[in-house]
Amino acid sequence: MNSDQATDNRRVLVIDDNDNIHEDFCKILMPPADSDSLAQARAALFGEVPTLPSQIRYELDFASQGREGFGLAQNAYQRGNPYAVAFVDMRMPPGWDGLETIEHLWYADPDIQIVICSAYSDHPWEDVSRRIGDTDKLLVLMKPFNSIEVVQLANALTKKWNLARSVKLQIDSLAFSVSQRTAELRDANERLQANIVSRAADILPALSRDDLEATFRQKEEFLAIMSHEILTPMNELVRKVQLLLDSPLSPGQREHATTLQRCAQDLLSLINDMHVFMAGGRQETQT
Q1: Mind listing the domains of the chain with CATH numbers?
Q2: What percentage of residues in the chain have a pLDDT greater than 90?
Q3: What are phi and psi of 85, to 5 degrees?
Q4: What are the tens digits of pLDDT across the range 26-56?
Q5: What is the pLDDT of residues 180-223, one digit of tens each?
Q6: CB under 8 Å to 84, separation ≥6 — which residues?
Q7: Distance (Å) of CA 15 to CA 64, 69, 115, 181
Q8: 3-class SS at 141?
């Protein structure tokens, strides 16, 4: 297991009223540590093909009813240690069915990936789609299922959850940096303008036209240098944000990226306002 895998979220919640199903998930996703070596040895000795590929281990929790699973997911999310994937049985009498359980799970944790474990006789997909909506966080695993299907789903969906979390953290970090830089630039601009007004009030009566133009040239040079230092990372930021918006994002991720783009545009507008302010000052000195 590499260092990236060691830090990934591999937490899986299984909600099913059948204890045998719980045991099956344990065998599939939490096999004994020596199972891989035994399978490889058996294949070498007898020419057998292992039933499952070598795999990482998952951290599993189990619930027998939807309400119990909702409580586990809610507590995990509030502790900052959420589940990446939940396997949810469609029928769990006498409590919530699978659809009601999923609705509550997404209320507690909007980012959790979910697999419905359903038989052909359960809810038609039209009913599922009508209640749950069009989402990329829901897959269906038809019963009876085999071990390979469970391993593939657990592997793919935990990777998807971790990639989505990584993108969200990067967007949040960029948004914070832009917001911080915008606030710093706005404060610097306000201080600069206040200083200019204060100094102009003190020295304008004694300054000649040449002195005034020299003062504004110095101010322009300062703003030009500051604008260049800001515009260089800003242009790179705008380019990265556009790449994010052009890629497939979830609604929540797209909202973050749009906020980041709006902050960048506000900062560029502020830089333009400073140049307009400078142009106005130069016109005043020439009249």
Answers
A1: 3-145 (3.40.50.2300), 166-286 (1.20.58)
A2: 31
A3: -140, 145
A4: 999 987 765 555 555 555 555 555 554 456 7
A5: 888 888 888 888 887 877 776 666 555 555 665 666 667 667 66
A6: 9, 10, 11, 12, 112, 113, 157, 158, 161, 162
A7: 6, 6, 10, 46
A8: strand
CA R_g for the chain = 30
* Two structure tokens written together for 167: 């993108």
Angstrom distance (rounded) from CA 171 to CA 241: 9
Q: Model's pTM, two decimal places?
A: 0.60
Nearest one of 84, 72, 88, 140 to 113, comparing CA atoms: 84
Amino acid at 245: L
The residues that bridge with 85 in the sheet, in sequence order, are 12, 113
Q: Which residue has the tokens 């997911």?
A: 73
CB burial of residue 225 (10 Å; 0-12, 13-18, 19+): exposed
State the Cα–Cα distance between residues 118 and 104, nearest whole angstrom: 18
Give the SS3 label for residue 114: strand
Question: What pLDDT score does 273 carry?
Answer: 73
pLDDT digits (tens, 9 = 90+) for 48-87: 555 544 567 899 999 999 999 999 999 999 999 999 999 9
List, in sequence order, every residue forming a beta bridge with 14; answer none if it has no partner: 62, 87
Vertex 31, ends 30 and 37: CA angle to 5°? 140
Strands 113-118 and 59-63 come out as unpaired
Quote the distance between the C-alpha of residue 267 and its chain's center.
24
What is the residue whose two structure tokens read 């000195």?
Answer: 285
Partners of 116 in beta bridges: 88, 140
